[in-house]
Amino acid sequence: MDWLYVLMPISGVTIFWPGLIILGLGVGIIGGFFGMGGAWMVTPGLNILGFPMAFAVGTDVAHMAGKSLISTLRHGKFGNVDYKLGLTMLAGTIIGVELGAQMLMWLERLGSVDKVVRWLYVVLLICMAWMVFHDVSLRKKKEREAAARGEELSATATGIDWASKLHAIRIPPMVHFHGAGIYCSAWLPIVVSLFTGWLAGILGIGGGLIRMPALVYLVGCPTHVAVGTDLFEVAISGLYGAASFTFKGRTELVAALIMLVGAAIGAQVGAVATKYIKGYGIRIAFGCAVLGCLASVVLKLIQPYFPAYAGFITKEEVKGILQHKGIYPIGKKMERISTKSLERELSKHPLIDEAECYKTPSGKVCVEVTQRIPILRIMSANGENYYLDNKGTVMPPEAKCVAHRAIVTGNVEKSFAMKDLYKF
């Protein structure tokens, strides 16, 4: 089944290409429906498929630009895009993207990029989920209060009403955005775009993850207009971000093009769906998607704390160990890679006997792992339960890497087992 895998020419990793198409299709549907590039899902998805985090971020931004452009054209036909508002946010977005990209490169040089980016995702997703469901809860409370008075709550009423307070801050110039039907200071969308642009650079997202709800809750856009305008802004920031990351050598254009095959179809489906589901229906669905993404990122974070003993040590497990310690070599400069650190961390794993890491003249880092070989299962009368390998070293009982091994029972002292028993 080698034909299902493709070698990425820049990062040097081998990727399951149907996974890229499925990822692009799903993100296309969700992005077109929620008004986001969907990059908040693609970066973790690419990382799970095998991309180093820096390459996942750069490739994500390039894919996001193409898909968002397709979605914007579709939303424009439905009148869901306020182009004036999107262009006003452009300056802040570009400055923010560059600041975020420079910070990402700095974190990569420090060897902390994977851990920092994942934890930023967790914090951001928790805040977004709370805001969305808190808003829904407040609106339902208003509906109950209105029903108690014998009234019907207006369709335009919201739970969280931060926008009206921010509109009262009249810092010149004041601008009327006709497409969104709002009148506010031009500095409001500029500040929002600066922060979301920074997120686009450091997390590899188009900023849509917080820009769409920010346009609703802070700027005061109707939900369907926030969706289309956000996608317009995502497309612009994505084009700049793709150019920036490509120049820095962190973009896999091959992977981005493969994902666009699925995204081109998904984006059309998602955009059409907004004609049938509006307002709080979109917000609730958005909150559920955020929770799903949060769960996947958290599972990736806690994986190193629960080693997979279900089989012999795998390539993915070795990669996970190094990523968890912030020393995964792919994407780093050769002079910043310590082979001794790689060997030291891998040798701590209970299923690894020896680890040898070295650099080749062609500029590659090779990691060779020798696995422990369990030969006996000890189930002592004193309650101790473990494996012994061929060198007399104890292995945990969870190491179910072999189906059949001789079982030793009775009063077996661990010292006797490690010294003499394994030799028989």
Question: What's the topology here?
Answer:
Elements: E1 5-7, E2 14-16, H1 17-34, H2 39-49, H3 53-77, H4 83-88, H5 90-110, H6 113-148, H7 163-167, E3 174-177, E4 182-185, H8 187-203, H9 208-219, H10 223-247, H11 253-273, H12 280-302, H13 315-324, H14 339-347, E5 352-359, E6 365-371, E7 374-380, E8 385-389, E9 394-395, E10 406-410, H15 414-419
Parallel strand pairs: 7-10
Antiparallel strand pairs: 1-2, 3-4, 5-6, 7-8, 8-9
What does this structure look like?
- With 424 residues, this protein is α+β, with helices and mostly antiparallel strands.
- 58% of the residues lie in helices and 11% in strands.
- The chain is built from 15 helices and 10 strands.
- The chain has helices at 17-34, 39-49, 53-77, 83-88, 90-110, 113-148, 163-167, 187-203, 208-219, 223-247, 253-273, 280-302, 315-324, 339-347, 414-419; strands spanning 5-7, 14-16, 174-177, 182-185, 352-359, 365-371, 374-380, 385-389, 394-395, 406-410.
- The strands form 4 sheets. Strands 9-8-7-10 form a 4-stranded mixed sheet, with no helix packed on it.
- α8 (187-203) runs antiparallel to α9.
- It is elongated, with a radius of gyration of 26 Å.
- The two termini are 42 Å apart.
- Mean pLDDT is 77; it is low at 307-311.
Low-confidence stretches are: 307-311
Count every helix, treating DSSP H or I runs of 4 or more residues as helices: 15
Name the beta content range: 5-15%
Distance from first to last alpha carbon: 42 Å
- Going across the biggest sheet, name each strand in turn: 9-8-7-10
Shape: elongated
Give the oligomer, counting copies of the same chain as homo and different chains as hetero.
single chain
Largest sheet: 4 strands, mixed
Mean pLDDT value: 77
Structural class from helices and strands?
alpha+beta
Kindly state the percentage of residues in helix.
Answer: 55-70%
Q: Count the strands?
A: 10
H/E topology pattern: EEHHHHHHHEEHHHHHHHEEEEEEH
Radius of gyration: 26 Å
